[in-house]
Fold:
Amino acid sequence: MSIILAGVTAGYGRDRAIVENIDLEIRTGEVTVLIGPNGCGKSTLLKTIGRILKPRSGSIHVDDLDVLRNDPKRVARTIAYLPQSPVVPTAITVEQLVGYGRAPHQSLLGLRSAKDIELVDHAIATTGLEELRFKPVAELSGGQRQRAFIAMALAQDTPYVMLDEPTTFLDIRHQVETLDLVRQLHDAGRTSVVVLHDIAQAARYGDRLVVMHAGRLVAEGKPADVVTPELLREVYGLECEVYPDPVSGTPVVTPK
Amino acid sequence: MTGLASPRTRATNRAVILIVALLALVICVSLWGLSVGAVAIPVDVIVNTLFNLDGEQQTYIIMKSRLPRMVLALLAGGALALSGAIIQAVIRNPLASPNVIGINSGAALFALGMVLLFPAIPQVWMPLAACLGGLCAAGFVMLVAHYRSLSAVHLALIGVAVGFVFESGVDYLLITSNDSESSAPMIWLTGSLWGRTWSHVGISWIPMIALSGVALILSYRLDLIALGEATATGLGLNVPRQRLIMLFVATMLASVAVAVVGVMGFIGLMAPHIARRLVGGSHRLMLPVSMLVGMLLVVLADGIGRAIAPPIEISAGILAALIGAPFFIYIMLTTASEQEP
Structure:
């Protein structure tokens, strides 16, 4: 039970590949965090896993499902993907947006079943959006919006959830709120892959870190094993000191 | 639970009431539209005539002259509005309309070219020529977008450029044609229902109703595609294929409308915005409401155009913009402040 990538190479248009020859196993029941410097290919890798971007070569399997050779709707019932800054549709309420998460389970007309309604209600309750249910998404604050999109991914009811930098543009309180929600997904039995910039947050919220540099995987493992001054020098070109977080005990990084 | 459900029910009820009201308004304005013109006919006579209870000179005017143009106004208004709503969802740009991806000018160029350069071809083929022109323009835009996988903004910009090319073609044809009747195409290009007959209805009603049906079936997918390529793909939609289908439907709708009533660019821009303001952005409600708003605008514009100074007529396209623009600006001003995050 896992997502297995073998020899995945991906890029945009005719340009040079962004990620090259990636072999990676994403284990079920863990929060995997992708980190790395800007432009290292972590978002591209996440898009490829979520089948938003078709790789040029390699294979992706989820359990027994060949992601690349399967009906997109079927894949969307297995993997949910949330882009870094999703388009906010005009004049759509929170409830409608969350309802779109049910699309892969519905027919062309998008008629809701009792189960659809139940899962939408549940997603709204989990993300604490009851009071904003009938508000247009465009009128929400950044943190509320992020919760609404995460609720949509929840309603999609997939065993795997991909989140691309869900904390960008949020203040620290909303960042923590969003990451707590990711842990909640984990506790509810979902496997998630999250792209994050903040190494301390990645170490604190991830069960497993995957570090990328220039389109390749350079390290993966438990946060305490991965986040070392040597790795930070190699990947970010920065001399740092690493010490345990006074609250969680996970590694925190301070540049020298 | 009931406490939570009630706003949803209220919203649905509101939408149903609105649709019924709009429908009633469309019928009333249509009846009024049938009564105005060079010969004023009271509405009760019209009703009697429509239900075959009367048989006089009015019957001739109503059945042969006014009814077909009314039917065309309804069909074209609905088609242009639907086309605009689809294009706005796909391009995700509030300025988008059939004009923006060059459809209207492409359709106009081919239809005009057929009339002026090949006068021997029967008029029945005009919608086909217009569709070819619309597809040429939209097809070019989509092809470029497909090979370079462009953003929605680039798609719109290229569409505008293509539109200009076709428009200059239209201008060229109008200037160089020595046809003594060249004012007829001129009137047609401003978007007019003048001189429309049952034969125009005959060549356009089947494609328009069929395409409108397809558009309504696609409404839920339009919701998904409006979430942007990444999110929509994540929800299991084959975005490039759906985008192609949607733009194809929108192109055909606008092209057939252009073939029979000329260029009424404003309807495709305005009607969807008004509808979104009335019932929100969910296309299952927004599309039928847009369609009704489009019908209302064209029928009203055509009626007023005939009522102002009979027997002189003012093109419905001109009046639609004149009536619609202030209302449209009002709506934009009242929504703009709410849309800010």
